[in-house]
Amino acid sequence: PALRRLSHYLLSHYQKGIRPVRDWRTTTNVAIDLMVYAILSVDEKNQVLTTYIWYRQHWTDEFLQWDPAHFDNLTQISLPAESIWVPDILINEFVDVGRSPHIPYVYVGHHGEVQNLKPIQVMTACSLDIYNFPFDVQNCSLTFTSWLHHIRDINLSLWRQPELIKFDRSVFMNQGEWELLYVLSHLQEFSVKSSDSYAEMKFYVVIRRRPLFYTVSLLLPSIFLMVMDIVGFYLPPNSGERVSFKITLLLGYSVFLIIVSDTLPATAVGTPLIGIYFVVCMALLVISLMETILIVRLVHKQDLQPHVPEWVKRLLLEQATVLLCIRDRTKFSQSRTQSSDISRQVENNDSTAKLNPYGCEDPRECDALGGARPVPPFPGPSEGSPLMLGVLREITAIRQFLEKREEFRDVAREWLQVGYVLDVLLFRAYLAAVLAYSITLGTLWSVWRDA
């Protein structure tokens, strides 16, 4: 009976359309509070944040006061929210009507203190910065203000101290993709074109993405493919397997990018750094394939391939081997001196054969044999000249063919040495570029994560 009598006493002559003050110059102070319960979704493309919050309001209604002694010492009663005056406080960033449960009652104290507690699913516009994805930190604001009443009618304040609100994770569900760092609060006045000022209470919800899933599913496969590309440089440059291996890696990376394209966040104003990382990795794979094609072209054996220019020999086979600290650089000089010795020996043999028609290596030996040389068993010059000339022509052709083939082998060997040194040089430059790029990205992501 006391509840019924009190409810009838309070609401019988209550007018909910009027601000509940006895003097119109009195400002209604509304204290608000916010606790984040869950981060439901973050839509980077549409720049929308969906959160579930516990929202509380507290104000004084001068027309809802009574003496507890007259009503069985009742100091608090719940009344329908539709039957009393409720401040028109909204969130400025609202972009859609949230699916929030309807709470039909509010608590009223005997001094007129009204407590309105309700959970709200909030869909708000937020400027999301995805450049640091997946190590990004988002700062989204929830601005509470009266849509109609200026600051002289309704003023806002905090229910609790800012320090208590900042690190309050007592009701936050900490099992999702996003982690709540803190909630900042700030009270300010807002005016439009020198009109009346409005009180605004801003809550900055700062959240951080957990990067473990994206690190495993995006970064590690890309790193593995780049490592395999670096290992592919150890295949022999004169074999065709390296080209097919590099092409297979490039095709595999293209398929990988197609698969992860749906995972990467997309906005109309920017691209995440990880997307740039994937593009640069693809470019590095293309450069690696081009380098392999160049090396295979140099070391490929061709009959019409010219000799290696002298400046290339000095630059690559002498100076570059010392600069790159190639262990077997002595073989290059040995092969070059060996080829020059072979050509010099061939010239000496030609001159010796012309000077010594009897095939003697020592002239004194030829002098000793000059007086008592045996008569050749062949017929005379007039009878055997055509046969001997034919045999000599065949022997000369065979000798020229062997010399030409040896010359081709020397040329191919020189180009193989040039290709080997150039391959080592380009591989180390490529490795240095990959390491510098990886260290830079790792440092940036580490700094962002720690910050």
UniProtKB/TrEMBL annotation:
<keyword id="KW-1071">Ligand-gated ion channel</keyword>
<dbReference type="GO" id="GO:0005230">
    <property type="term" value="F:extracellular ligand-gated monoatomic ion channel activity"/>
</dbReference>
<keyword id="KW-0628">Postsynaptic cell membrane</keyword>
<dbReference type="InterPro" id="IPR008133">
    <property type="entry name" value="5HT3_rcpt_A"/>
</dbReference>
<dbReference type="GO" id="GO:0045211">
    <property type="term" value="C:postsynaptic membrane"/>
</dbReference>
<feature type="domain" description="Neurotransmitter-gated ion-channel ligand-binding">
    <location>
        <begin position="4"/>
        <end position="211"/>
    </location>
</feature>
<dbReference type="InterPro" id="IPR049944">
    <property type="entry name" value="LGIC_TM_5-HT3"/>
</dbReference>
<keyword id="KW-1015">Disulfide bond</keyword>
<dbReference type="Pfam" id="PF02932">
    <property type="entry name" value="Neur_chan_memb"/>
</dbReference>
<keyword id="KW-1003">Cell membrane</keyword>
<dbReference type="InterPro" id="IPR006202">
    <property type="entry name" value="Neur_chan_lig-bd"/>
</dbReference>
<keyword id="KW-0770">Synapse</keyword>
<dbReference type="InterPro" id="IPR018000">
    <property type="entry name" value="Neurotransmitter_ion_chnl_CS"/>
</dbReference>
<comment type="function">
    <text>Forms serotonin (5-hydroxytryptamine/5-HT3)-activated cation-selective channel complexes, which when activated cause fast, depolarizing responses in neurons.</text>
</comment>
<dbReference type="GO" id="GO:0004888">
    <property type="term" value="F:transmembrane signaling receptor activity"/>
</dbReference>
<dbReference type="InterPro" id="IPR036734">
    <property type="entry name" value="Neur_chan_lig-bd_sf"/>
</dbReference>
<feature type="transmembrane region" description="Helical">
    <location>
        <begin position="274"/>
        <end position="296"/>
    </location>
</feature>
<keyword id="KW-0732">Signal</keyword>
<keyword id="KW-0472">Membrane</keyword>
<feature type="transmembrane region" description="Helical">
    <location>
        <begin position="425"/>
        <end position="448"/>
    </location>
</feature>
<comment type="similarity">
    <text>Belongs to the ligand-gated ion channel (TC 1.A.9) family. 5-hydroxytryptamine receptor (TC 1.A.9.2) subfamily. HTR3A sub-subfamily.</text>
</comment>
<dbReference type="InterPro" id="IPR008132">
    <property type="entry name" value="5HT3_rcpt"/>
</dbReference>
<keyword id="KW-0325">Glycoprotein</keyword>
<dbReference type="InterPro" id="IPR006201">
    <property type="entry name" value="Neur_channel"/>
</dbReference>
<keyword id="KW-0675">Receptor</keyword>
<dbReference type="Pfam" id="PF02931">
    <property type="entry name" value="Neur_chan_LBD"/>
</dbReference>
<feature type="transmembrane region" description="Helical">
    <location>
        <begin position="212"/>
        <end position="235"/>
    </location>
</feature>
<dbReference type="InterPro" id="IPR036719">
    <property type="entry name" value="Neuro-gated_channel_TM_sf"/>
</dbReference>
<keyword id="KW-0406">Ion transport</keyword>
<comment type="subunit">
    <text>Forms homopentameric as well as heteropentameric serotonin-activated cation-selective channel complexes with HTR3B or HTR3C or HTR3D or HTR3E. The homomeric complex is functional but exhibits low conductance with modified voltage dependence, and decreased agonist and antagonist affinity. Heteropentameric complexes display properties which resemble that of neuronal serotonin-activated channels in vivo. Interacts with RIC3.</text>
</comment>
<keyword id="KW-0813">Transport</keyword>
<protein>
    <recommendedName>
        <fullName>5-hydroxytryptamine receptor 3A</fullName>
    </recommendedName>
</protein>
<dbReference type="InterPro" id="IPR006029">
    <property type="entry name" value="Neurotrans-gated_channel_TM"/>
</dbReference>
<keyword id="KW-0407">Ion channel</keyword>
<keyword id="KW-1133">Transmembrane helix</keyword>
<keyword id="KW-0812">Transmembrane</keyword>
<feature type="transmembrane region" description="Helical">
    <location>
        <begin position="247"/>
        <end position="268"/>
    </location>
</feature>
<feature type="domain" description="Neurotransmitter-gated ion-channel transmembrane">
    <location>
        <begin position="218"/>
        <end position="440"/>
    </location>
</feature>
<dbReference type="InterPro" id="IPR038050">
    <property type="entry name" value="Neuro_actylchol_rec"/>
</dbReference>
